[in-house]
Amino acid sequence: MLKHAGAIWLAIKDAIYNSIEEPALSFTSESLVGLGFQENEIAKEALTLLQRVIVQNDSLYLSLIVKDEDINMILNTITIYESYNDIYLQGKLKLHVVGRFLSISARSSIASCNRVFESYFPRLMEILGLPVKNLSGDHSPIVSSLISKRLNFGALYLCIELLASYRDLTAGSKEIASKSISASETCYSMLQSYSNLLTKAFCSTLATSPQDADIYFAAKGLQILATFPGYVSPMLTSEFESILITFMSIITLHFKKTLLWKLSLKALVNIGSFIDEYHESEKVSSYMGVVVEKIVSLVSLDDFTMPFPLKLEAISGIGTSGLSYMLKIVQGLEEAIYTNLSEFYAHENMKSPDITVWLLECYSNKVLPWIHENGSFDEVLLRFPVNVWSQIESHVDFSIQVQEMELLDATMTAMRHAVAFCSVESQNKIIQKAYSVLSSSSFFPLKEFTSLTIQFQLGGLQLAQKIDNLSYRDEWILSLFASVVIAARPQTPIPNLKEILQLFMTTILKGSVPAAQALGSIVNKLGKESNELKISSDCTLEEALETIFRTMLWNSHDNGAVMKCSGTNNGSEMSFADSCLGVVNNNLPQIHAVTGLSWIGKGLLLRGHEKVKDVTMIFLEFLLENNKADAFPLKQNSLESSCELDLHPSVIKSAADAFHILMSDSEVCLNRKFHAVIRPLYKQRFFSTMMPILQPLIMKNDSSLSRSMLCRAFAHIICDTPLTPILSEAKKLIPIILDCLSMLNKDIQDKDILYSLLLVLSGILTDKKGQEAVIENAHHVVNNLTKLIVYPHMMLVRETAIQCLVAMSELPHARIYPMRIQVLRAISNALNDPKRAVRQEAVRCRQAWASIASRSLHF
Amino acid sequence: MTLGLINANPVVHAKKERVARTEDPHGDDAVDPLEIYDFVRDIRDPEHPYSLEQLSVLSEESITVDEKLGRILITFTPTIQHCSMATVIGLCLRVKLQHCFPPHYKVDIKVSPGSHANEESVNKQLNDKERVAAALENPNLRQLVDECLYSNEL
């Protein structure tokens, strides 16, 4: 190998020069290799080879490299071009290659690093105009004027490559660390002499240069200088701090220069995580002081020069660089949130709630998950919910004029996420605190029942006028309490469960969706604690369900068609059913009741409890309202219907949409994140139980209203079922799916469900089994799809319909040929669609259908 | 009838980077030259396994479109002055655009000024409806056009 070193070197050079591809990537905040030229496989292998041979025999190869004419020529020519943009393309390529060579040579061992530094570093410093340190150690006053001159790009780039290699060599390898690089090493001493000057030069480049390339490398250079391990190059604290200060001033002042801002933030994050990882305690305390504290103070300042979202981006970025920083930052964020919230409650200072909303979002989406992943400190996670509740407790009167829904939502989200990450003990503390605030509010004692009953007996008109008679403070307390319940683990007991159930049921009727979701969460998790921890709550699941259903259950012994209550609670005649019937003129309580029931049903469905059947039967009853009992097997006294259910169509529609709540995945509650009890394959199971019931109902049904509602319910179930069970039933389902599609075509409100259903159809069409099922109904499918091509309300529907037609063109020729002309005619209109994506699909579709019958010999 | 290739050694250029378009969710997307260019840039040259873009026969700047009037004008540059494949290329362009746009669009195809010896007669031939229809009825020509248009699918 030694004999052929020269030849190998030449071969490597050739390979690389010929294999670098343009164009170069532009300078963004992502890290680049070299100057960003793309290296193909050949180049990569050549460089790997170079690495290996240098490791084997460094002195030989390094002499070859150092004496290489090409490299020296390039070094001579870079002095001609000052800035990156001036260099012609070939020159950039060559510079990139030289940089890669030097970088690879330097990082193979300390000896080679020394050699490379020796040969090139002084020259580069000279080109950059940085004077040699004279013996006494101080620099001449000419320094400052020299530094303000523009740095030569080529020298800057190569210098950075050398520094980066040296740094990676020392930081990466533990053996070298233990050897502790002595001051006699060339690279060490060179770095020592020049680091101060380099720091100043890079700082001034960052501040003054407008070019992306300069900014990118200057930032990189400063980052490298700041992240040398202490034993390698003891950098003065003042120097280190000056680097941090430079970056911080860019972040706070120059936020309009996007690339510069992003690079500075990234550099700070890298520096922070490096010094944290390497336990450089002095540097860590400088970082804390200069960076972390400053950035926390930004958030509390009422200074609006820097856009708030940008402040939050900076603060969350810096937090992710280390746990100690994040803990400090989270404190600052929380303080800001509490201040803002208390101002909001007291209605001082009519600021818009946007800032608080942003703070809460940053807290829930970025900070909390990071803390949870990196250590999950219960004391920290517990703090926020407890403090929020204490705040509400102390503000007895809210003077807010207008309910800020966005703010309430953001607070609820933050509360949910914070509680969800806590352990059982912490959740216990939180829920006790919340309950104490709740019980001192105007909800308790629950005298609402009697007053409601009286109102009903008076005809229920009062309730009709002001459904939502909760005060703002009550609504906050209720919603936040519901959020705590939603996020609680199954093992966390809920205090005074029976009372809470009553509370939620009442507020559900008033339209509180969080209460419905909380009730759903309770029935989902109740009674699921493990056998070891037999925590006795005051209510078992069966008791709870009985309470709920007693007030809602269908009494099939009396007149079958009448929904009537048979049970009473504490002697009051309150019943859910009465509330529905009594308030004849107002549909809202009925709709609220259906919503409540659907969340409860969802909780039961997820855990696989059999009561979910009762819930779905109630919904189906609603959907079949006009039907007499003959279609429905459960009814017994079919002939007697003295008191018919006279339900408003909006109520029936809400019963159909209940299936959407049952089947779809919610971000807000009843999912894995919030510790829901989920039985595997629950969706498939529900699908297989519901289909045999729904299908005959739809087929036999004559009434157009109930048919369309049943189809709606069907669509909701199908859209959220995984594709596999649908494919096995595809033959039976396709006719109903097509009916649903044509029915949902009409109303713009239905566009989302139409799109989801169309996606199911496209899933069927693109599967082999599904295609077999479609063949018999091909004509109907095509008719349906051609109508959907011109659906005006949603571009995705048109696009998907056309894609389905493309899939149809793959069916057996004999089946689809009759429809060819029809499709081509419909598609030629779509070529004119206002949206480009649709036009392009139309071209594909036209080509697919035209080519099933062509005179050309090739198709 | 020439026996060999018209242009045996064409100059091949790199393909321009394909930019992914960001769609405007609210507005309507007007037909613009880039859209048309995306349809025609991969048409294969009749003689060589390169696309018209790679041989610099077409470029985005050579296309103009007026959506309201429904008119498209494409100018292309044959690789050499006496290229007799020019008419075939023009035919390929016309067929492709017929497939990609609704029938009411009027398409004008011309060679760029000064790029061909018989510029006027070639332009006349390319835009004459009857001659185009007659050409497409010739099975050999039809096959050649289909190969140029859909070679990447075969």
UniProtKB/TrEMBL annotation, chain A:
Coiled coil: none annotated. It comes from the Eukaryota. It is found in: Nucleus. Keywords: DNA damage, DNA repair, Nucleus. Residues 401-808 form the MMS19 C-terminal domain. InterPro entries: MMS19, MMS19_C. GO terms for biological process: DNA repair; iron-sulfur cluster assembly; protein maturation. Its main location: nucleus. GO terms for cellular component: cytosolic [4Fe-4S] assembly targeting complex; nucleus. PANTHER family: DNA REPAIR/TRANSCRIPTION PROTEIN MET18/MMS19, MMS19 NUCLEOTIDE EXCISION REPAIR PROTEIN HOMOLOG. Belongs to the MET18/MMS19 family. Key component of the cytosolic iron-sulfur protein assembly (CIA) complex, a multiprotein complex that mediates the incorporation of iron-sulfur cluster into apoproteins specifically involved in DNA metabolism and genomic integrity. In the CIA complex, MMS19 acts as an adapter between early-acting CIA components and a subset of cellular target iron-sulfur proteins. This is MMS19 nucleotide excision repair protein. It comes from Carya illinoinensis. The lineage of its organism: Eukaryota, Viridiplantae, Streptophyta, Embryophyta, Tracheophyta.
Automatic annotation (TrEMBL), chain B:
Belongs to the MIP18 family. InterPro entries: FSCA_dom_sf, MIP18, MIP18-like. Residues 35-96 form the MIP18 family-like domain. It comes from Carya illinoinensis (Pecan). GO terms for biological process: protein maturation. The lineage of its organism: Eukaryota, Viridiplantae, Streptophyta, Embryophyta, Tracheophyta. PANTHER family: CYTOSOLIC IRON-SULFUR ASSEMBLY COMPONENT 2B-RELATED, PROTEIN AE7-LIKE 1. This is MIP18 family-like domain-containing protein. It holds the Pfam family FeS_assembly_P.
